[in-house]
Amino acid sequence: MDKVTNSPQIHFKQNIARDKYKNVPKPYLKVAEGLEAQFTNHLLNQMRKTVHPIEPESQAEKIYKSMLDSERSELMSKTDTGLGIKDLVLEQIYPNFKNRPVEHAHNTYKKVNLNSHKGENHE
């Protein structure tokens, strides 16, 4: 097994992501993710326009890069560490989203953080 995926911090982040959106109805979450994906895709397209290629790009290469940007934006919108637009949209369209258990998440983080430093000498 990979040591990186068994890290307490990674498991903590995955659990917080699930906890953060578990009470949000699927249609609201889908809309928020869609808006973040659209914005991220637009952002990536505009960033790509600032880089001028050395050689002219073929039409196939342009389509490939466009599809790649689209997939990247979809993946970024499904994470809890994206641009944050999903959270802003959810706060506007689903007011109960703000009432998530922040104290529980903070206490869990303290617990994971303390357990990860056992046996280390911090002086």
Notable traits:
mainly alpha; 123 residues
Describe this structure in words.
It is a single chain. The protein has one domain. With 123 residues, it is mainly alpha-helical. It is built from five helices and no strands. The radius of gyration is 19 Å and the shape is elongated.
Give the overall silhouette. Answer: elongated
Biggest beta sheet summary: none
Helix fraction, binned, reads 55-70%
Span between N and C termini?
32 Å
Derived structural class: mainly alpha
Counted up, domains total 1
**Average pLDDT for all residues:** 78
Which spans have pLDDT < 50 for at least 5 consecutive residues?
12-16
Q: What's the SSE pattern?
A: HHHHH
Q: Estimate the strand proportion.
A: under 5%
Let me know the number of strands.
Answer: 0
What does the secondary structure layout of this molecule look like, with pairings?
Blueprint: H1 8-21, H2 26-49, H3 59-77, H4 85-93, H5 102-116
Helix pairs in contact: 1-5, 2-3, 2-4
Q: Can I get a quick summary?
A:
By secondary structure, this protein is mostly helical. It contains five helices and no strands.
